[in-house]
Amino acid sequence: MRRGSRKGEIQHVEALLRLAMPPRYDAMEKLEHTAREWESVVGPVLGKQSAPLDIVNGELIVVAEGPLAGNRLAMMGGNVVRILAERWGLEVMKVKVVVGRLPLKPAHGSKGAVARQTAIRVREEDVKEFESHCLESQPDFPPDAAQSLARLRAFFIKRFNT
Predict the structure, then answer these.
(1) Among 16, 21, 131, 139, which is most exposed with the fewest C-beta within 10 angstroms?
(2) Is the pLDDT of residue 140 over 80?
């Protein structure tokens, strides 16, 4: 917690982090949870034949391997929407199914192996822009904390393409 702009006002760090995150961050984080637990949402057979991709204007975009799996998912759309709302509070109005190639899933069973990931580099001008925005909205905010939040926000925007 940190002191707010008024004397005695305390703000939670979570609230400050939420200010620094891009607008779609919550939905993207919940979508990642959904993707990890997809088989528990649609069942083991459809879970292996489909995957959630994105949320656009309240629509969950799901890719299915073939038209049969796509048709079954389309018919389950209402149940999928209800389950997502109950489990993760994900605000989805409908499910849109497209037939295509499934995204690659990480290999299971290799606990000791670390997946190789490419480094995400953020542009310094984005960091400076977010840092100035942070300092304008919170004038008494420490500059080093503003820079850290700005770098974090730039990272999430680059990582989640928001």
Answers:
(1) 139
(2) yes
CA–CA separation, 142 vs 121, rounded Å?
Answer: 24
Residue 92: CB atoms within 10 Å: 23
Q: How far apart are CA 36 and CA 62, in angstroms?
A: 14
Q: Is 17 in the same domain as 49?
A: no
DSSP labels for 52-97?
EEEEETTEEEEEESSHHHHHHHHHTHHHHHHHHHHHH-----EEEE
pLDDT in tens, 65-92: 999 999 999 999 999 999 999 998 888 8
Judge contact between 135 and 141, C-beta under 8 A.
Answer: yes
**Model confidence over 33-57: pLDDT tens digits?**
888 999 999 999 999 999 999 888 8
pTM of the shown model: 0.55
The domain boundary, picked from 53, 71, 99, lies at 99
**Based on the domain organization, do 87 and 134 belong to the same domain?**
no
Contact 25, 162 (CB under 8 A): yes
For residue 62, list its beta bridge partners: 52, 97
